[in-house]
Amino acid sequence: MIAFLEGTLKSKNPAQVVLNVNGVGYELLIPLSTYDKLPKPGETVHILTHFHVREDAQTLYGFSSPAERQLFQLLLSVSKIG
Q: Could you read off the pLDDT tens digit of each residue along the chain, which spans 82 residues?
């Protein structure tokens, strides 16, 4: 599992960010609450992550706090909804 990433924020929008970590660009999906706490592009940022693997996708999610990540993981553990 990838616990966190720390690097230079290359770009951001309300749904995702691109983070440059030693020359590798990571695209992370983020909640609005994380977007509001991000610095300007070009600055260093530390983002907690959750790497979610399914049959049809591998997705990296980013969060600004452990509480946000824990809530997300709790929601993922709920099955048979929808």
A: 789 999 999 999 999 999 999 999 999 999 999 999 999 999 999 999 999 998 999 999 999 999 999 999 998 888 776 5
Give me the DSSP letters along 4-69.
EEEEEEEEEETTEEEEEETTEEEEEE--HHHHTT---TTSEEEEEEEEEE-SS-EEEEEESSHHHH
Q: List Cβ neighbours of 27 (8 Å cut-off, separation of 6 or more).
A: 16, 17, 18, 60
- Taking alpha carbons only, the member of 47, 50, 45, 38 closest to residue 12 is 38
Kindly report the length of the chain.
Answer: 82
Evaluate whether 64 touches 37 at the Cβ level (below 8 Å).
yes
| pTM of the model as a whole | 0.87
Spatial contact of 10 and 33, defined as CB atoms under 8 Å apart: no
